[in-house]
Each structure stands twice: as structure tokens, then as C-alpha cells.
Amino acid sequence: MRIGPFHIFADYHTHTRHSHGKGSVLENVRAAKRRGLSAVAVADHGPASLFGVGVEGLSAFDAIRREVLAAKKEYPGVEVLLGAEANVISEDGELDIPLELQERLDVVLVGLHPLVRWRPLVKGASLLAANVLGAWTRDDRHARERNTRAIVNAVRYNRAHIVTHPGYRLPIDTRSLAKACAMTGCALEINAGHDHTTAEYIRVAKAEGAKFALGSDAHSPERVGDLKKAVDLALKAGLTPRDIVNAR
Questions:
Q1: Alpha-carbon distance 114 to 125, whole Å?
Q2: Collapsing DSSP states into helix, strand and coil, what is residue 191?
């Protein structure tokens, strides 16, 4: 799939009805094929997401795996990857997808989300309060420090391939996260579904050696591979295909 100077070959961030998406694995793969992608990952939310956003339990990934295998048979020309968008659930970087399951996934996406079951719960509540207070007072230094510690530890101590929508809703220190990603080979996502990322953020992260992934964050099959907004932002920041893990 060509968008401007980029040949985008994969969309690693799509959801299905197993979490809070609207389509099936097969429908997402079919959409990827129509877009001209050669690879697509199904990365449903981990079970710590609140209010029905995540999968009901870790066993859901067994069912998703079966659907992935069936989709591979129907579309042998598309590389269908089993993934997850794991939630950070502690400042130590623990994820709601345990390491044993991470090893059985093709791709592990890591997201810092505000509404998850934190461990321990009291720390999660205090971090949420710090973020709310920081946004209200316009002084988010304390929240930013704690958010950054959590996501950096998640990158360091897990099999993390992509950090999803970094800085969305929860402020983080760009340089610290980018340095951790450069050291581990984890990519930072440029998310086509949200508007919080700036070209300056991307330039700062690139200066620290980070790579990037363009992701649709599709919650319906129609949005799989819808990456133009992410490409436009990447071009504005001066990225080339060498900076992007799913582009040539």
C-alpha cells in the first residue's frame, strides 16, 4: 500500500469484537487485503481494561489464535499476526499479559491507559488522581514522572515491540521513553486514530534513536490500514522509510 513516498506493508494495531472492536479477525484480514497490506496484526486490549474495553480473560487469546489460523488459510497472501495491546498495570512496568503469554504472541503492543485495574489498586488510584490534578492545575510534573517510570519499565522488562499512542491522555517524558525504546528496539507508534502526537514530539524521539510504527488503532474493519494521517505527520516530522518499522 503506497501513501506518498512510503510503501506501508503492515498495520500492527487493530482490534476486534473480542475487546471493544466491531469486526471479526477475518473481517480485519479481508480489509487489510483490500488495502494492499501484506501483514496485519490483531491486537485486542488486555483484560485489565475497565468497562468492557478489554478481553474477558487471558483464555480469549486462545479463541483469537484459532480465528487467526483460520484467516491465514483463507488469505494465504496476508501475514496474520496474533498480538495484544497489553496494559501497563504498575509503576514497575508489569503488564496484564504475563511473560509466558507474551512469548506465544507474534507482536506485543504496550499501552499506558488511565482506566485499568492497577496493581496495587491504591497506587493506581493515586496515579489517576495525580493525573487529574495535574491536568486541572496545569502542573503535571509529578504525574509525568510516575507515568514515565511505568511505561519505561514496561518497555525494559517485557517483550515489547510497540508502545501505542505514547502520551495520549497521560503525559510522559518523551526523551526518557525514546531512549528506552532505542535501547530495546521497541518502536513508538504514530497513531492515526488520535490527534495528540506532534511533529516536534516525533523529532525529539528520533533524535534519541527511536524507531516508529504507523498504526490505525482500527476498531472496525473499515479503518484497518487507514494510515494517511499518520503518514502526513511522519512526513511533517521529516521521517523516512528507514525510521518506520512497517514501511519501505
A1: 10
A2: strand
Full set of structural domains in the chain with CATH = 2-243 (3.20.20.140)
CB 247 within 8 A of CB 214: yes
Residue pointed to by grid coordinates 511505561 = 151
DSSP 97-139: S-HHHHTTSSEEEEE--SSB--SSHHHHHHHHHHHHHHHHHT-
Closest Cα partner for 206 from 244, 168, 170, 165? 244
Q: What is the mean pLDDT of residues 203-215?
A: 98
Least Cα distance to 155 among 182, 118, 174 occurs for 182
Calpha distance 80→72 (Å, rounded): 6
Task: Using CA atoms of 96, 97, 98, 102 in order, give the dihedral in degrees to the nearest 10.
Answer: -160
Residues linked to residue 86 through DSSP beta bridges, in sequence order: 110
Name the band, by pLDDT with cuts 50, 70 and 90, for residue 120.
confident
- In whole angstroms, what is the distance from residue 158 CA to residue 110 CA? 9
Q: Is the pLDDT of residue 130 over 90?
A: no
Contact 57, 47 (CB under 8 A): yes
For 172, half-sphere exposure in the C-beta direction (CA atoms, 13 angstrom radius) is 33
Is 105 in contact with 61 (CB distance < 8 Å)? yes
